Amino acid sequence: MAHISSLIFITGGVRSGKSSFAERKAIEIAGETGGRLNYLATGVATDAEMKARIEKHQRDRESGKYRWNTIERSVQMGEVTDNFTAQDIILLDCVTTLLNNELFLSETVWDGAFLEKVKENIITGITAIKNQAGTVIVVSNEVLNEPLLGNELVFTYGRLLGQIHQYLVKEADQAFLVEAGIPIVMKGVGR
Is 20 domain-assigned? Predict the structure, then answer.
C-alpha cells in the first residue's frame, strides 16, 4: 500500500496567531490518528528578542499537556527526514525564517543560480519531509502585502518567498490565512 501524506500550509501576518492555530491543528490531527507530534523549529537566536521568542515557544510546548518532539534545524530541511515515520505529524515553523537562514548561510553573491538553489533546497526539503511523514503543517509569514520598493535585497527576498508560497499552496491539501487569530480557509476544507 502506498504511503499517503498531507500538507497543510498556514500563513498570516506577524503575531496573527498562525503558530497557535498550527499547533492546535497538529494536536487535533494527532488526536485523530494517534500520531507523534514533532516541532521542526527554524529559528536562530540571533538577538535577545529572538532568543526570548524561542524560549517562550519551547516553554509553551514543554508545559502543555501534549508531548512534542522538538528538532531545531535552521537550514537543509531534507537532512532530517530519517527522524520521521508515516505516523508523524510535523509542524515546520517557519518558512520565512528558513529562507532567511538559507540566504545568509554564507557570503555567497545572490545571483540567479544561487537564488534558484536556495528555493529548490527549501522546496525539496519540505517535499522530502512530506514524503516521509503522515502530515506536514508548514507555517509562514505573509510579508508580501506591502510594496517592496527601494531595496533590491528585500525585493529579491519577497519574490523568492512568493514563489515558495505559491508552490506550497499548489501542493497543499489545505491552506489557511490567519488574521487576528481567525483562520480563513483558502484551500481544502470548506472549499
Answer: yes
Burial 116-131 (b: 16+ CB within 10 A, else e): eebbebbbebbbbbbe
Task: Provide the pLDDT for residue 156.
Answer: 87
Q: Is 7 exposed, middle or buried (0-12, 13-18, 19+ CB in 10 A)?
A: buried
Backbone angles phi, psi at 180, to 5 degrees: 50, 40
| Whole-number Cα distances in Å, 90 to 52, 64, 71, 83, 159 | 23, 17, 10, 10, 26
Domain-embedded: residue 129: yes
pLDDT tens digits, residue range 76-86?
988 898 989 99
Q: For residues 9-46, b (16+ Cβ closer than 10 Å) or e, as one string?
A: bbbbeeebbbbebbbebbbebbeeeebbbbbbbbbbee
- Taking the model in full, what pTM does it have? 0.89
Domain that holds residue 141: 6-187
CATH number at residue 175: 3.40.50.300
Tell me, yes or no, whether 17 lies in a domain: yes
Query: For the chain, what is the domain count?
Result: 1
Residue 1 forms part of a structural domain? no
